[in-house]
Every structure is written in structure tokens, then in C-alpha cells.
Design a protein that fits this description.
DEATH-like_dom_sf, Recoverin, domain 1, caspase binding, two-stranded antiparallel ribbon, mainly alpha, Death domain-containing protein, death receptor binding, Death Domain, Fas
Length: 253
Amino acid sequence: MGIYSSTFYKSGDQILFESTDPSQANWITAHADACKLTIPEVLRCWERFLMLHPDKNGNILRHSLTTNDAFNSQLVEQLPVSEDGLVTFQTFCCAVKWLSSSVTETKLRGFIDEDDFILWLKRLPVETLKSSLHFPVLPNKTTVTGHRTNTKHFTARTRVESTAVQKLTYNQLHVIAVELSKRRRDWKLLANCLGFLEKDCQTLERKYLDTENQILEMLQLWRRRAQVPDAAKHLQAALRDTGNADISNAVFQ
């Protein structure tokens, strides 16, 4: 969510607190349009938001959303706030939209600490852990004879398939980085789609001052780590899914 939260307060490229407030007739409709919600959905959000006692401008303190739940605390920490630590109603609506529409895997990204996960695994019974991590190349019931019989067939097929796999070059990654930076696209959305977490992006931002090099390093890291048969096709799909189909078409045409 950390990566997606960067878009909460500017959904639809509109910052609503500059143009409307709770006293205006367009308060609900403006948020419905900006946050891609229906009028009934925004009304429901506003009813809940009022329970948190917003100020006259429709803002609340971030800590008013915090509970003792660990997931809640992590989520609230990701919400963008003003210099005064305030959460706008627009941010609240966008967060609700994200929670209602995102798949479980996306919601969990950035919320599970790796060290905590490892500690949890170590608490499992030894046999359960071993069976979960045991991954033989050949199933136990597969015979060596049967495997050898099909070796020639699979080798020949692999050669044919490999000729159709498009290689991913440094120049292609460089062009993508240049275009994403030049067009001011949200490269963190692409990073998230490729499996990077918010903390990974922050590390790149600390390492490189300019956006182009941040993106290029991210793409090169992904290419080295990618465990997919056709990295080029995978990257094309990720670009399309994050609103960068024009760049994908230009690079891979």
C-alpha cells in the first residue's frame, strides 16, 4: 500500500481541499468523481468520517484512525498527511477504494515484516516445515527410465520455444527509464507490479538523486532476479497494467 498511497491525495490529478470544503454543495460529488466511487459509497464514507470529528475543512488527525490492530497501524502509517499531520477526506476515500478493490496479495505487500515471518515459520512443527519446504525436481514416483525416454523430445521442444523468447536488453531498460522519468510517470507503481516493496523504492531513492537512475537500477535488479521464462513479455504486461502501454509499444514494437 505504501507505493499506492502516493496517489491517494491526488486521485484524478485533483487536490480537492483546494477547491471545495464540507460546506459546499459539490463536496460529495467532487469526491465521487476524483476517487472513482459512487455517490452512495462516498456518502457512506462521509458518515463514517464524521464519527471521527473532522475539522471545518474536512480533515482529521491521522492518529484518530489508529487502533491496537497491527495491520491497521501499518496501514494508517502509509497514509499521506499534510504538514500538520492531517488526513483529508479525499485520502480517506481513496484508501477505502484501495481496500475494497485490491486483491489480498497486494494488500499484504509491505505489511508483513520478513523477520517476523521467519520467526513465525520457526514456530511450526519441524516435520510440517520440512514438508512445506521440500521441493524435489522430480516427484518421488517418477522413474529415471521414464525421464530419460522423454529427454530428446523435451530438448527438441525447448530449442524451438527458446527461439521465440524475446531477450530483454540494457538499451530497452534504459529507454523505459528515460521515458518514465521524462513523462513523469509513477514508477513506483511499476516497481510494485514487478515485486518491489516501498522500502526497496526508498533505498533506490537514497542511492540515486535523479529519477531516471532510480528506475534504471530497479529494472536491472528485476531483470537479474526475474524467474520468468520470457522477461520481456512479463515487463510489457507490467507496463500495460500500470498505465504505460504507450512506452511498452514504443520499446517493444
